[in-house]
Every structure is written in C-alpha cells, then in structure tokens.
Design goal:
By secondary structure, the chain is α/β, with parallel strands linked by helices. It folds into 2 domains: 159 residues, 3-Layer(aba) Sandwich (Rossmann fold), CATH 3.40.50.2300; 133 residues, Response regulator (Rossmann fold). The strands form 2 sheets. A 6-stranded parallel β-sheet has the order 2-1-3-4-5-11, sandwiched between helices. Strands 7-6-8-9-10-12 form a 6-stranded mixed β-sheet, with helices on both faces. Helix 3 links the parallel strand 1 and strand 2. The longest helix is centred in the middle third of the chain and has 17 residues. The protein is elongated, with a radius of gyration of 20 Å. 54% of the residues are buried.
Length: 313
C-alpha cells in the first residue's frame, strides 16, 4: 500500500503544470495566524525554506480557527495561482477534504500538519505530520489521575468540536480518565479557540463547582484563558490544572504554579518538516506517510531543560 502511495506521489509530482513548477511557491496555510503556536509553525517553515533558491514560501491563515470557509478559500486561491506545493493544517476534516482533492487532481503535492482530514482522504495528500494527539491526551490524563487521585470531579475545557486534533486529544484524555478512574468529568466546554471565551467559561465552571479537583485546557488560547480565570478566582495552585501548548503565558503559569504542567507539541517541527517534505516530493524523493512531531509534558521541574526549551516558543 505504501509503495502504491509513493508511486502516486511521484506521478502527481511529475504531472505538475509548467506554471506550478516555475512558480516554486510553497503555500503554508494554518488554522489561524492569531496564535503563537501557528507563528512558531511559521518560524519552522521559514527555516526550511531558508538557504535554497528553488522555492519560495507564503504563510497564511484566517483570523480565527472557526473561520473554516475562509480557510477553504485560501486553499482554493493557492490552487488557482498554481503553487508548487501546499502545507495545510485543516480546521475542519470534512470541509477541507474536497479542496485538497482539487489540489491532488491539479498535481499539487500536499502535506497535512496538526489535524487530519476526513476518512478516505489519505489518497489526496502525501504526508501527515502531527503530534499523536490521542497519546498526548492520555499522557495529560495520566498526570491528572496521579495528581488528584481516582475520585472526585474534574473539568475539561476544549476548543473547536470535531477538529481532528480535538477529537484525538480530548477524546484520548476523556477515555483514559473513564477507563482508569472514577473521576466525574464536567464538560467538555468549547471555547472556539478564543481566550476570552475560555476565561469566561472557566470562571463559570469554577463558580458552579466549588469541589473541583482538576481542570484540563486543551489548546493554547483555551489554556491561557483557563489559567487567567484560575488566577482571577484565587484558585491558582489550589487545584490541578494541566494545559496544552507552550507560549510565554503558559510558561509563566507553569513557573508560578498556576499550571502543574502543559503538554507542548513540536510546532516548529511541523512547519519545518512539513515544508521539507513538500520540497522532497517536488525533487522526486520519498517521504514517510506519517511523521510524528512529538509532545513534551513541561513542568516546573523540567521547564529549563533542553528537551523543554526545544519545543517552547
């Protein structure tokens, strides 16, 4: 099956139109540009393109992760202007599949980063680069149980329902909690990846659940809003809070004890390796169908280690 996939990749690359080949543009399209996580992806993509003259790189994304139609339009625009390749972090697995199919039919190689596409879409892209979100969610849940025990109440603050990374990450967390403890789960609540929404939701959850023992914030803006709500409510450090992603705010929350830990993905690696995979495809080289970009549980004890510093941003 893998050999067939690679053969199809080679065929699609060879069939690139002269316009696409001459343009040399690799379009990196992410879920939103208004996030340090995605700006770190941009840094990785820029590092991959630096020092070579065959291709250029553009970076784009909508104002919010929930602006799915806008992201679809950006991919369509990239196809219409004949880019050489696309690196895409799809905001919605089903909505983005048809336009990725269009890219495939146009002979444009695509690498998918962070979140997957819908079932059956694997034949339309050539590589998937991501944290194993299910494993990352399970890792956060394991730490939660170790901290709060197997009884009591915890809350789950999520981001956009149905996004591939959310399904794996929050699903992995919830399933692990249910299978390995008697903890009652409040939520999940969906912030739509808006920090202010997450802050308000967490404030309400804390007010309504005075006996809460733990809380999980499943992506950067959600975890930042969660952390700020904990501080404002005077509950920072008084219950176990675990975040996800690693911007400056979340690092500060780990250092001051608001968060016990934050799970940090290799966002730089997603951009760097995603662009390198497209360059390899365009040169006729083979790429692995799946590339795991990893996750690190960053705590106060290890935050200054090389392992943590290599993924924080």
């Amino acid at each position: 099956m893998k050999k067939l996939l690679l053969a199809a990749v080679a065929a699609s690359v060879m069939s690139l139109s002269p316009v696409a080949s001459m343009a040399g543009e690799i379009a990196v399209i992410v879920k939103t540009t208004n996030s340090n996580f995605w700006q770190n992806v941009n840094k990785g993509a820029s590092a991959a393109i630096k020092g070579q003259s065959d291709h250029t790189m553009t970076f784009n994304g909508p104002a919010a992760e929930s602006a799915i139609a806008a992201q679809v339009g950006m991919v369509e625009d990239a196809i219409n202007r004949g880019v050489a390749g696309i690196v895409l972090a799809p905001s919605d697995p089903d909505a983005l599949t048809p336009v990725v199919k269009r890219a495939y039919e146009a002979g444009i190689p695509v690498t998918i980063i962070d979140s997957g596409l819908g079932d059956g879409a694997e034949k339309y892209y050539q590589a998937f680069l991501s944290t194993d979100n299910k494993a990352a969610g399970q890792l956060a849940a394991k730490m939660m149980i170790e901290s709060v025990g197997k009884d009591g109440k915890i809350a789950v603050m999520s981001y956009v329902a149905g996004v591939g990374s959310e399904i794996g990450r929050v699903g992995g967390f919830v399933d692990y909690i249910k299978a390995n403890s008697n903890l009652e789960i409040v939520g999940p609540y969906y912030s739509q990846s808006q920090m202010a929404t997450a802050l308000n939701q967490t404030t309400d959850v804390l007010a309504a659940n005075g006996d809460l023992k733990g809380i999980f914030g499943a992506n950067e803006p959600t975890a930042v809003g969660m952390g700020r709500a904990l501080v404002q409510a005077g509950k920072a450090g008084k219950l176990t809070a675990i975040g996800f992603d690693g911007n400056g705010d979340l690092q500060d929350f780990v250092r001051n004890g608001t968060l016990e830990a934050t799970a940090v993905q290799g966002s730089f690696q997603m951009g760097e390796l995603g662009v390198k995979a497209v360059i390899d495809l365009l040169s006729g080289s083979k790429v692995e169908p799946f590339i795991d970009t990893g996750v690190v549980m960053v705590t106060k004890e290890n935050i200054d280690s090389d392992t943590a510093q290599n993924v924080l941003y």
